[in-house]
Structure formats: structure tokens, C-alpha cells
UniProtKB/TrEMBL annotation:
Signal sequence, start to end: 1-19
Bias type Basic and acidic residues, positions: 882-891
Organism: Streptococcus suis
Gene: mrp
Annotated ranges, domain MucBP: 596-671, 676-772, 778-851
Region Disordered: start-end pairs: 862-907
Key words, A-Z: Coiled coil, Repeat, Signal
InterPro entries per UniProt: MucBP_dom
Protein name, UniProt field: Muramidase-released protein
One Pfam family, short name: MucBP
Coiled coil start-end: 115-156
């Protein structure tokens, strides 16, 4: 993957996004001409391979790579401007793709609009690039428009990054079977060297194309748009059973073909039953992995016919194979098994002699399609050297097993067969089986059944040939079956003697040469690259006067007594032509060009963002000035850290000058930004308000003042009001005159930085203001009508949060009797203060007033005053100033023998 730093938000897309890897996509690149390759051997299907044995030597012809040297041309001013436009437009598809991925997960109208705008500007730029009449002014205006759209889109995408990093995947290794956003036939160019310009541009296929899969004779590819036919089955064995005595039905004049669609994210197979008469599709189904479908058309021909069942078997699935298609009838007989090929990305690479990758061009393919690589391009500042190619894919995917060929004499007598297994995408092994002369049963010459055969050898894995000129030969010397050696030949088994007294034996002999020049016909890659396979006959040679039986071979005179010697030279090489190759075009640096790049470091010498190209590959002497547009005031590193410019690094090249050979590297030093956070806690250290940022990512040396911007006189938290505490010691620690923490106490809060000061590089300052909850109390007093205290005050609420409800009615007795026995009755109308309400800061006082109740002392003759009864004077508390006479106790004394001559008020 190639990473695009988030610094582009501050630097402009030209800094990181603009100068980063270019990824440009071409339209579908499929050749229109019919392929000239003959049919290849079908995958593991006993019936299918029998039809193809004679075709195993017909291989694909690869379009040769263009080896002409790239010639640089002098660009006009318009062409130079277009090169810049092409560079900035290459970012648009990548950014739009990243944006579309986010829109698939969330709704974001702003992001959607930014994507639309970038795509609109991209379309306009493409039109201008294709306009031969475009002026420099038009192109430069479009450069500015695309840059602005890309920057806006890049800024929107920053919201969806965890660390401010935009990441784009590059296909730099082929074949790549991972998920791709390309459709089959689509191409994508990637310019990795940001100092150069490619001609043709990386948006051009430059010859890169795919050809459809090679199909069997008289098989047509599907006409369904967006689908690619990769294999077929001709129903041969199935039909033999239908019109045979077992089923008693009728042969179906059709074949079945299989296709994959253009979307690599799917593995759905389109299965179509196609008429052999006119190509009409008789019945079709789309088959998902792990499922089965039934074709009922055969029963419309004859009710006795078996239905056709296709099963998409995933039990054999691997990273390279989605699964296989199995063709059944009603009796569950398997007639054909076809491996479903994988989707792959085939890549052409452009590299320097030291292996540095300048660019790549990738094509989305289906394994087995023939791929033509992208041709040589011109890269400013580099000269083309050579082209190399490596096979990466054959016609069939890994795991395919097939009959590769049968060895027979001129009379059609068969003696051995070869079975090929694809062990890697670009490699196969071949196993040779000799007919066992002692076996008397029926053997399979049309498939992969080895009953009745002797295993001779299994080759080492060999790679497909690219050009039919260079082959990969066997190096494995292991013989799989027991043998003896006679006269230099490995002897295996011999047949029974016939009526004429003759018999034959199977022999083999390594016959490879020591030739080291691969271009010469006698080259075999060594001793084990070829083997002689044959039979020797136990017979006479009367022409030579030999009348006793002896072993006679193909080089000997012999008498035909029922057996004829056979022999052939079997080359042990991979003659199959690769359908896809990795083409590598190699370049060397041109010393007449140079470039200027800019690097950004922190004060510890660590590079903090991707380097950027100030001056791409240019002629020596070209002027440059990195201070103008490559030294931003601030930038953002990949981890989100903000930096501010400080100075030029000591080992930097000059920030202004002229281009010299090679690369000139200018280095700037940036220091980390600083921050100031403000915390709000109570006297115990509990957070009562979320911290706030007073200064975030600020420039070092900048003045800050939290007293001015963040200090709050009061805070409401959980329904309570808090106010700043004065200087002093509290559980949380020591508080200074500015109401802020200056020494840590119980370790619940630790921010003890001053409330004013300067931003420091890389320092996050923490200021902590300390608060205390505002409280209040409610006190109840008890007094008589003269203002005298008749009962000690009571506290109804103590240190209660302001705003809490209170009531003093539970502390309001109707009467009070003092220690001296005096009785006081509540006078409600004289209550002073609110009996019910909410606590406020300070003390609320409620005073209840009581009236002292008087007694009448009657004058009773001859009774000492101390013994005289005290009669309470009637009192109505609702009218404390108007005594109630209606029940005056004195009335009880009237008419009695006692005299109420005087009234004495006593307490």
C-alpha cells in the first residue's frame, strides 16, 4: 500500500496527495480480433479430455513485447502544462474511490458533493487533455480547478480517518487474486516515481489487453453482456447413455457452457444449455457457490431422459479456486467436473536496474484469459534498457488434473499416457504411466484412470513457456516403479509369451543431452529433460542369422512373431504457453536529468510526512525555489500531530538553486505544536465540567490566558451550583490566588500549570480551576411577643445545596412550656420568614412568635394566696390582642360565697 499523509489539508494536495502515487484507470482493454490459439486440454473430466489428446501441442502465441528504445521528444508549453494536468487528475479517481467507500457506509451530503465536483473536474480535464487545440491558459486553469476539487475532497475524507491517513492499495505483484474494484478487462496505471512523467501516460493501456478464453471447436461464447465464457461440456457421454438401452431416451443436441461475470467481487457462474444446431440458448441458470440447479430441458425432448443437475462444489475451494462444477444425471453419475477459474490482476512493471519500481499497469482478468502486456513507455530522466517476462498463469487454475497425451506407434497401438496436474498458477507436473504388459483388463486411454498402468516418473514442477523458444525442463531423476538394468535400459515388466513364443517388455532410458545453449534443438536442460520410452521384443532376426530368441529393439533387425518393438523420445518439459505473464521493462537513470525533493523532519531528526517533489525530472540548470510553495507554516503528520516550521536542517541542500544530476534533497525542520487544556474540579478533585481546550495545536511562543477565555465564576453540575474557591488548602491540593490548582493534593487532579503563559513546543499544558458547591442553612427561632427568646433555636437544614426544598412546619409546636412552667401559645400571624421554600446561599431564618398565657387568682377569704387556684385566662391565638370573655372563668365565681374582688395576673 502507498500512504497519502494528512498534511495535504494544510499544504495543499500538491504536497502529498498531488505529489503522491498516481493511480489512473483505463477503459476496458479487450482485443477485438479472434484469438488464434487452438483448444487446450480440458480440466479434470474423463469424457472431456478424450476429445483433446491430439491438441496438446497447440499452444497460445504471445504478442511480443516492444523492445524499441524510448525516444524523448521536446515538449511544447502546452504539452508541459498537460503533463502537470495529467499528474493532478491522476489523484481524482483514487480520492473518489475512497469517498465512495465511505458513502457506502454512511450518508454524507457534503462528501457526496465533493466527490461529484472532483469527478466533474476530472471529466473536464480529460476532455481538455484530448483537445489538440487547447491553450496553455485553459490547461493551467483546469489544473487549478482539479487541484481545488481534490483538496476539498481530501479534506472531507479526513473526517473518516482514525489517524489522518488516507490509504490506497496498489497492485504491484501479479497475479493478485484479492478483491479489486476493477472489472474484467479494465486497466489501471500507477505512477510510483513522483519525480518523472510517463509517456504515454499511465492512464493509457499502451497495448495492454486481454483476449477471451480459448473455447472448444464449435463452441461460442455467451452473448450475455458482461459475462465471459471460460469452459464447456459437449454432453457426449451423457447423450450416449440417454439413447442407449439403459435410459432408452433421446440424445440432446446441445452443449453446456460456463461463464463468469465482470465483477471480481462475485463468483456466480452462468450455465447455459446451447443448441448445437443454431446456437439458441435452450435453458440457463445462474449458479451460486455451494448450490445446485436442475436443467429440465432434456425431458422436453424425451420423457425418459434424465434431468441435468449442476452442483457448484466448494469442497475443493482454495485461495486460487472458487470451486468446481459437477455435471450429474438422475442416477447421480458424474459426467464432467470443471474447475471454476479465479479472478486475477495481471501487472506490467516498469523498474530501474536496481529494482526500484517506477510504475505499474494492471489488468483485471479471469485466470486462463490470454493477456498482452503493456508496452514500453518513456519516463523523463530514464532510458529504456530491456524487457523481461515471467509466466504467472496458464490456461487452467491450480488443482486441475488432465490427460496430457498418449504415446502410440504408427499403427495406433498405445503404450503409455501422460497426466498433467497444475500445481501452481504458473507450474505443472507431468506423470508418465506405462501400459502394464501383464494386465489383461480394459484400461482408460481417454481419462485420468491409471488402472492397468505402471507409474514411470513424475516430473519436477515446470513453468509454462512464454515464447515457445525457452522451456523449463524436468530435473527429477526419481523412477516410481521397480526396474532392472539390461544393456543400459531400465526394464520394467514383460508380457506373457504368445503362441509363436514371442513376448515384449517395457523399457526406458534417460536420453537428455549436455548441451547448454537453450536455443539449440538438441538442448534438453540436462540428462533428465528427456527420456526414451519403448518396448523390446523377444524374437529372432533370421536376416542376420540369429535363430535364437533375444531382446530386439527399434534399432535392431527383428522377425515379427506377433510383437513389433516400439520407441519414442519423450521430452520432459512444459510446452504449454502461459496465458498471462508478468512483463518487466527495465530502465536506467539518464545523467542529464535531475530532480528536487523536499523532506520534513521534527526536532529529533525523524521524518514526519512523506517527501514531496518540488521539481520533477528536469534538464540540468533548471531553477528551483522550495521556499515559495514547499515550506508551509504548519503541517500534519500521519498520526495527526501538528507541526510548525522552525528552520532549515543542517544537512539540507540549498532551498533555492538550479537542478544538478541526480536528486537534490531540501530538508526542513518543524517543531511540534503545543496545547493548553482547562479542567474544572471541586475541592475533592471531582470533575464538575468537561475539560475544554483553550489552545489546540498552537504555535510555540504564542501567548495564552485561560483567565480571560475559560475561567467561569460559577458552574451548575448535577443540579448544584459551584463557585470558585479562594486561595487555600483543600483535599484536591493547594489553590493559588487565581483560583487554580498550584500543588497536587489527593492526586485526583494534577493540572498545575499557570493560567497565563506561552505555548511550548510539544507540551500539553493543563490548568485546573477549583470550585466548591454553594450551600445554605435554615434556622428556626422561638420568641414571645416581646421579642424574648423562649426556646433555643433549631437548625432545620444545614449546608444544603442551593435550590433544595425545605419546610420548617415540622419544627413549629403549637405551644411551648418553659422551664418555669410558663405556657406560650403560637401566634401564627406573627411568624417571621418563609416556612416553605428553596435553600439559598447563606442562612434563612424563620421565627415563630408565641403569646404567654395569663392566670386569674381569685381572692378567697381565709385562704393563703399560695394556696389559691390559678385559673388560666382565656386566650384566642388568632386574635392575640382581644381577650375572649365569653368563657371568662370569673363567671364561675359569681353568685358564690367567694368574692372575686380583684384580678391578679401572674405568670
Amino acid at each position: 500500500k502507498y500512504h497519502f499523509g494528512a498534511a495535504s489539508v494544510l499544504l495543499g494536495v500538491s504536497l502529498v496527495l498531488g505529489a503522491g502515487t498516481q493511480v489512473v484507470k483505463a477503459e476496458e482493454a479487450v482485443t477485438s480480433s479472434e484469438p488464434t490459439i487452438a483448444s487446450s486440454v480440458a480440466p479434470a473430466s474423463t469424457e472431456a479430455v478424450a476429445e483433446e489428446v491430439d491438441k496438446t501441442n497447440a499452444e497460445a502465441t504471445l504478442v511480443p513485447a516492444e523492445n524499441t528504445s524510448a525516444v524523448a521528444t521536446t515538449s511544447t508549453e502546452v504539452e508541459k502544462a498537460k503533463a502537470v494536468l495529467e499528474q493532478v487528475t491522476s489523484e481524482s479517481p483514487l480520492l473518489a474511490g475512497l469517498g465512495q467507500k465511505e458513502l457506502a457506509k454512511t450518508e454524507d451530503a457534503t462528501l457526496a458533493k465533493a466527490i461529484e465536483d472532483a469527478q466533474t473536474k476530472l471529466a473536464a480535464a480529460k476532455a481538455l487533455l484530448a483537445d489538440s487545440e487547447a491553450t496553455v491558459e485553459q490547461v493551467e486553469a483546469q489544473v487549478a480547478a482539479v487541484k481545488a476539487a481534490n483538496e476539498a475532497l481530501g479534506n472531507e475524507l479526513q473526517k473518516y480517518t482514525v489517524d489522518g491517513l488516507l490509504t490506497a492499495a496498489l497492485d504491484t505483484v501479479a497475479p493478485d487474486t484479492t478483491a479489486s474494484t476493477l472489472k474484467v478487462g479494465d486497466g489501471e496505471g500507477t505512477l510510483l516515481d513522483r519525480t518523472t512523467t510517463a509517456t504515454p501516460s499511465m492512464s493509457e493501456p499502451n497495448g495492454a489487453a486481454i483476449a477471451p478464453h480459448t473455447l472448444r471447436d464449435k463452441v461460442e461464447a455467451t452473448k450475455e453482456s458482461g459475462w465471459y465464457t471460460f469452459e464447456s461440456y459437449d454432453l457426449n457421454s451423457y447423450n450416449r447413455n440417454q439413447n442407449g438401452s439403459i435410459v432408452g431416451g433421446t440424445a440432446v443436441g446441445a452443449y453446456i457452457r460456463y461463464s463468469l461475470d465482470s465483477d471480481p467481487a462475485t463468483s456466480t457462474v452462468l450455465a447455459e444449455l446451447v443448441s448445437t444446431k443454431d446456437g439458441e440458448v435452450l435453458e440457463s441458470h445462474k449458479l451460486e457457490a455451494g448450490n445446485s440447479v436442475t436443467f429440465s430441458y432434456p425431458k422436453t425432448i424425451n420423457a425418459k431422459n434424465s434431468n441435468i443437475t449442476l452442483t457448484y462444489d466448494t469442497s475443493t475451494a482454495t485461495a486460487d479456486i472458487p470451486g468446481s462444477l459437477k455435471f450429474y444425471d438422475d442416477r447421480d453419475a458424474v459426467y464432467s467436473t470443471v474447475v471454476v477459474p479465479a479472478y486475477q490482476v495481471n501487472t506490467t512493471r516498469y523498474v530501474t536496474e536496481d529494482g526500484t519500481v517506477l510504475a505499474t499497469y494492471s489488468l483485471q482478468t479471469i485466470a486462463g484469459q490470454t493477456v498482452t502486456s503493456s508496452k514500453v513507455r518513456t519516463f523523463t530522466g530514464y532510458d529504456y534498457v530491456k524487457t523481461t517476462q515471467n509466466a504467472i498463469q496458464g490456461a487452467y487454475p491450480k488443482g486441475t488434473l488432465m490427460l496430457a497425451g498418449v504415446g502410440a506407434d504408427k499403427n495406433g497401438n498405445k503404450y503409455y499416457k501422460a497426466i498433467r496436474e497444475v500445481v501452481e498458477d504458473n507450474q505443472s507436473v507431468m506423470t508418465l504411466y506405462l501400459l502394464d504388459p501383464t494386465y489383461t483388463g480394459t484400461v482408460d486411454w481417454t481419462g485420468t484412470d491409471t488402472t492397468g498402468f505402471i507409474p514411470l516418473l513424475k516430473t519436477s514442477p515446470t513453468v509454462y513457456t512464454i515464447d515457445r523458444k525457452v522451456y523449463d525442463y524436468n530435473i527429477n531423476a526419481t523412477i516410481l516403479s521397480p526396474y532392472t538394468v539390461d544393456n543400459g535400459f531400465m526394464v520394467f515388466k514383460e508380457s506373457a509369451t504368445n503362441a509363436q513364443g514371442s513376448k515384449y517388455r517395457v523399457v526406458a532410458q534417460w536420453s537428455g543431452t549436455d548441451e547448454t545453449d537453450p536455443t539449440k534443438p538438441e538442448y534438453t536442460g540436462g540428462k533428465y529433460g528427456r527420456i526414451y520410452i519403448g518396448t523390446q521384443v523377444w524374437t529372432t532376426a533370421k536376416e542376420l542369422g540369429i535363430t535364437e530368441n533375444q531382446w530386439r529393439g527399434t534399432a535392431d533387425k527383428f522377425d515379427n512373431n506377433g510383437f513389433v518393438p516400439f520407441g519414442t523420445q519423450q521430452y520432459l518439459r512444459n510446452a504449454s504457453v502461459a496465458t498471462a505473464v508478468e512483463t518487466t521493462h527495465v530502465y536506467k537513470v539518464n545523467p542529464k536529468f535531475g530532480d528536487v525533493i523536499v523532506e520534513y523532519y521534527d526536532t529529533d531528526g525523524k521524518q514526519i510526512v512523506n517527501s514531496v517533489v518540488d521539481t520533477p525530472k528536469s534538464a540540468l540548470g533548471t531553477e528551483y525555489n522550495t521556499d515559495v510553495d514547499r515550506r508551509p507554516a504548519s503541517l500534519v503528520a500521519a498520526d495527526g500531530t501538528v507541526y510548525f516550521y522552525k528552520e532549515v536542517k543542517s544537512d539540507s541542500a540549498k532551498t533555492t538553486g538550479t537542478v544538478v544530476a541526480g536528486t537534490t534533497t531540501v530538508k526542513y525542520v518543524y517543531e511540534k505544536a503545543g496545547s493548553v487544556n482547562v479542567n474544572f474540579v471541586d475541592i475533592n478533585g471531582k470533575v464538575i465540567k468537561a475539560p475544554v481546550s483553550d489552545e489546540k495545536d498552537a504555535k510555540p511562543g504564542y501567548n495564552y490566558d485561560t483567565d480571560l477565555d475559560q475561567k467561569l465564576a460559577s458552574i451548575t453540575f448535577e443540579g448544584k451550583e459551584y463557585k470558585l474557591v479562594p486561595a487555600g488548602d483543600y483535599p484536591v491540593g493547594k489553590v493559588g490566588k487565581g483560583n487554580n490548582l498550584i500543588e497536587v493534593g489527593n492526586n485526583t487532579a494534577k493540572g498545575i500549570d499557570p493560567t497565563t503563559g506561552k505555548i511550548e513546543a510539544g507540551v500539553n499544558k493543563e490548568v485546573t480551576y477549583v470550585y466548591k458547591a454553594v450551600t445554605g442553612s435554615v434556622v428556626v427561632n422561638y420568641k414571645d411577643t416581646e421579642g424574648n427568646v423562649i426556646k433555643d433555636p433549631e437548625t432545620d437544614v444545614s449546608d444544603a445545596p442551593v435550590g433544595d426544598a425545605y419546610t420548617t412546619t415540622d419544627k413549629k409546636p403549637n405551644e411551648i412550656i418553659t422551664k418555669d412552667g410558663s405556657r406560650y401559645v403560637l401566634v401564627p400571624s406573627k411568624t417571621d420568614g418563609e416556612e416553605n421554600g428553596k435553600v439559598i446561599e447563606g442562612t434563612i431564618t424563620v421565627t415563630y412568635v408565641y403569646q404567654k398565657v395569663a392566670n386569674w387568682i381569685p381572692e378567697i377569704p381565709n385562704v393563703p394566696e399560695t394556696n389559691r387556684p390559678k385559673v388560666p385566662y382565656p386566650f384566642d391565638p388568632t386574635e392575640p390582642d382581644e381577650p375572649n370573655r365569653s368563657n371568662d372563668t370569673r363567671n364561675k365565681w359569681r353568685g358564690s360565697k367567694y368574692s372575686l374582688r380583684s384580678r391578679i395576673y401572674t405568670g
